[in-house]
Amino acid sequence: MHALPEIQSRFYAAMLLPQSESALDDLLLGQAIKNARRIAAYRRNIKVNLCGALALTYPVTQRIVGEVFFREAARAHALLEPSRSGDLNDYGANFASFIEGYAHAAALPYLADVARLEWQLQTLALAADAEASATTGVAPFAALATTPPDRYAALYFECDRVVVRMNSSWPLNEIWRVNQPDFFGDMQIDFTQDCRLLLWRTPRGTQLSALSKAEAALLDELLAGRALAGAVEMALEQDADFDLGTSLQRWIAAGVLRGAFFDLERS
Amino acid sequence: MRSPNFPLKLPTQAGIGLRGPHINEFLATRPDIAWLEVHSENYFGDGGLALQQLEQIRTDYPLSLHGVGLSLGSSDPLNLRHLIKLKNLIASVEPQSVSEHLCWSSTGGNFLNDLLPLPYSEEALATVCDHISQAQEFLGRRLLIENVSSYLRFNQETLTEWDFLREVAQRCDCDILLDINNIYVSSINHGFDAQSYLAAIPPARIAEIHLAGHESDVADEGDDSFLIDTHSRPVCDAVWSLYADALQRFGSRPTLIEWDSDLPALAVLLNEADKAQQILDAHTPTSHARAA
After folding, report:
1. Of A8, B36, B239, B259, which has the most beta carbons under 10 Å away?
2. What pTM, to 2 d.p., does this model score?
3. Which residue ranges make up each domain of chain B?
4. How large is the ipTM?
5. What CA–CA distance (Å, rounded) separates A201 from B52?
């Protein structure tokens, strides 16, 4: 007599381990030879489900390596990183780390960062919606317009919370761009370039954009809730010609900066 | 908030399972379909576009939340995080119906994310009944439990699948989501009579019917072909016929067309629902019943 926990743990192992079609013979009714093909059907379905879930989360990674390579990587990954949730959207959180240690992907040293970016995009897509802006009124940026630059030490921005900043030593934004399904053109990329990215969400979905060093320095300060004066100082350290007005306009238009407020007490 | 006239339960008409690739087209065209079913887990995010789209959908269409990941038949305890997400989703979209499967998919905290067969033993019955009762209590509502298709049977089974399903419904006071395609697939795979299955199910428990397509795994040699529940094809003639038999026995029920892989155009799915609706209409006692 086999208890349910034993049946289920042996069934589980037989689904993932290679050449395990006969491992359940003593548990099953019917001819072993017939059952082997039926076990294979379950194994196939599970593999397709897990690989399909990864492919949905990591479409660019799959596009770069091709479907056959991706399927093999997904199979190896499934053995090391079991699914821990009944929700397949949770599956594959550590795929980037897996790729880092995956010998077959060693020739593509940027691939792990691509996967890291895709996991961040998925996480962002499912993140809680931002609360209504605290900077009420018809002109949320009135404080920006009325505050002279010498008082920027007390000027703060209310920022979208549904954003992610990430840096890479690879030109991730370019790799991303030329691997979109609708991209048509020159696929040449200068792999010596690094990048700084901002990921955010609009009503149409997730967006990503590369930032200059100065712009990244500015946004890192503002997103951390620090005053504009210090943020500008950090940006100018990166680039003496940094154009603050253009940059603020860009991120206000994108909805990442949602309002400005003057707060003498916080400075 | 919903209009006070919005129905509290699924209409006794044909609906479709709405999947991600069809959602934009569905929202743009608002097809004439009586109700919709979505997979609960696809809306477990905390926010974002998918939930906003579901919110738009549920204001205009009766909605069924159909879970695939609760793993009710596992010897593991129920996953509390999963239950909390489901409870929050139910509170936010106020579905007409919430359903799950009579199967398991996890052990030792690891998931295979598939609808795996239970041994139909007293032990498994006790386990799954405990879990269904716990889930119903936690969610504060009755669940519909669906029979799954299977390719394997265990050697220590003491109950038939239909007795197991009926016992579950009676012990847990839950409803049954009867999948006609799954009955057909399993009847071929295990050589039982689908009519015996139908005859054993108490009609009052059946709150919804599923229809879907399957594929055949054809053996290179010998007689070992079997059916795989792929949800990748139109409903086959034998399943339509079994569906008509079921309606004859049980009366009309809300009926769903499921299609999950090799998705066809939305119009094809709606056309399958029309076919189900015609069979429903033929079993509806008076033509006024639908409008009522």
Report:
1. A8
2. 0.93
3. 14-23+34-283
4. 0.94
5. 13
Q: Considering only CB atoms, which chain B residues are within 8 Å of A128? A: 46-47
Q: Are A86 and B228 an interchain contact pair (Cβ–Cβ within 8 Å)?
A: no
On chain A, the residues whose CB falls within 8 A of the CB of B50 are: 125-126
R_g of chain B computed on alpha carbons = 18
Q: For A87, which residue in chain B has the nearest alpha carbon? A: B41
Of A63, A24, A68, A201, nearest in space to A130 by CA: A201
Closest-approach residue (CA) in chain B for A129: B47
Helix axes B180-190, B237-250, angle to 10 degrees: 120
pLDDT tens sequence across B71-129: 999 999 999 999 999 999 999 999 999 999 999 999 999 999 999 999 999 999 999 99
Query: How many Cα atoms occupy the beta-carbon half-sphere of A107 within 13 Å?
Result: 4
- Cα-Cα end-to-end distance for chain B: 24
Q: Which residues of B touch A11 (CB under 8 A)?
A: 107, 116
Closest-CA residue of B relative to A5 is B75
Question: Do the chains contact at B82 and A86, CB–CB below 8 Å?
Answer: yes
Q: For residue B179, what is the enclosing H or E element?
A: strand B175-179
Say if the Cβ atoms of A45 and B114 lie within 8 Å: yes
**B76: phi then psi, degrees, rounded to nearest 5:** -65, 155
- State the CATH architecture for B14-23+34-283: Alpha-Beta Barrel (3.20)
